[in-house]
Amino acid sequence: MWCSRRFGVCGAKHSHRFPGNTLTLTNLDTGKSITVVTTGSFHGQLEPDGSGFFMVTGPGPFLTNPITGEPGVWYSSGRFTATFDAEGNQCRPTSRAAH
Hints:
Elements: E1 3-4, E2 9-10, E3 13-17, E4 22-26, E5 33-37, E6 41-46, E7 52-57, E8 60-64, E9 71-76, E10 79-84, E11 94-96
Antiparallel strand pairs: 1-2, 3-6, 4-5, 6-7, 7-10, 8-9, 10-11
């Protein structure tokens, strides 16, 4: 097993699934709410040098735009992948999704 000092984790390979999840978002100004399906999965892998990637598939929210960093709540219905270098800089974000 290896450890990444930068991120303080060992053997960092994670996969999560969220069957049956929903998320309710409420506009605090109007009180109007919507409920969306968030059953997507997450897979992330961190290399010994601190580089790595993560992939989110299926429907689910992002709290900032994963490509541009623009604030807001963004909803993805496909696949988003991002690769990071050893310094934590995002290298190659790709999306095969309707946001």
